[in-house]
Amino acid sequence: MSFDASDIRELGLWALPLAQRAGAVIMDIYTTSPEVRYKADRSPVTDADVACEHIILKALSRLAADIPVVAEEALSCGAAPRIEDRFFLVDPVDGTKEFIRANGEFTVNIALVENHAPVFGLVYAPAFSDCYVTLGTDRAVRVKLVPDHHPEPRPDYEFQPISGERPGSRGFTAIVSRSNQTPEAERFLRRIGDPPCMRMGSSLKFGVIARGDADVYPRFAPTSEWDIAAGHALVNAAGGCVLTEAGAPLAYGKVDRHFANPSFIAWRRRDEAEAMLRAE
Question: Each residue of 173-216: pLDDT tens digit?
Fold first, then answer.
């Protein structure tokens, strides 16, 4: 299977009912006080992570069996596919800590990476029926998507285009992790003027950036590629960027680092990122 910009739209339309099915399974488990287990790295996992990943991997194998998939739970069990220039990244429940806390701030993340950069992303928060998806490398949309065990693909999704436009009445605003704030991020925020700060879990932060409700998201705590690739694609498509602390584009396919990311900063606008970097 080969993807270009027009295929990204088809991939997005195909992924929406998949997200609904995965979201329905997640919400069934979410409402039953799920058992929490811990992986070797001491990160939490529940039956929702495992069940959702199974649904997504099965669907991707039917869609594009020739494209490898790096998925969080499979990788933690030793299933490490050989990757090349194109591969999927899947995080079945991003924000498991928020899932356990039952605050709704968790997402299903599906991304496609080509040549070390994310070109497609879907970020779905089933507890809020809130979905963000790219329909092209420069087209990002938001859509209300209700979890559904048996969804039908629809030609009439009510897409809301998002392009990172800041409401005129809002000043420069940051958004940070609810669960993983660090002294390094605090120092970064002071360096850029100590702006007002929102706190939120999971990849929903990328959606807030992409829709223009925050301007910068600094992340100096550990993340893996599957945590952020879908959100990165979304921010890129909406006119923003995700850079390393040194200002380089964040790259994917870091097999030698076990897919671990360096610190990064997501920006609503590329020109604002460049201006900040020039000022330092």
Answer: 999 998 877 889 999 999 999 999 999 999 999 999 999 999 99
Nearest residue to 203 via CA among 126, 262, 148: 126
Q: Let me know: does 52 contact 93? Beta carbons within 8 Å.
A: yes
CA distance 17 to 20: 5
* Residue type present at position 275: A
Please write the tens of the pLDDT for every residue from 101-126: 999 999 999 999 999 999 999 999 99
The CA distance from 97 to 141, in Å, is 27
CB 19 within 8 A of CB 108: yes
Query: Within its chain, how far is the Cα of 107 from the centroid?
Result: 8
Residues 6+ apart with CB under 8 A from 10: none
CA distance 165 to 239: 9
Please state whether 2 falls in left (phi above 0), alpha (psi between -120 and 50) or beta: beta
Are the C-beta atoms of residues 218 and 176 closer than 8 Å to each other? yes
Q: Read out DSSP for 99-150? A: HHHTSS--EEEEEEEETTEEEEEEEEEGGGTEEEEEEETTEEEEEE----SS
What gap in Å lies between CA 242 and CA 235, rounded to an integer? 8
CA–CA distance, 99 with 105 (Å, rounded to integer)? 7
Q: What is the pTM of this model?
A: 0.95
Residue reference for tokens 């979890």: 147
How many other CB atoms sit within 10 Å of the CB of residue 147? 21
Residue 95 zone, left/alpha/beta (φ > 0; ψ -120 to 50; rest): left
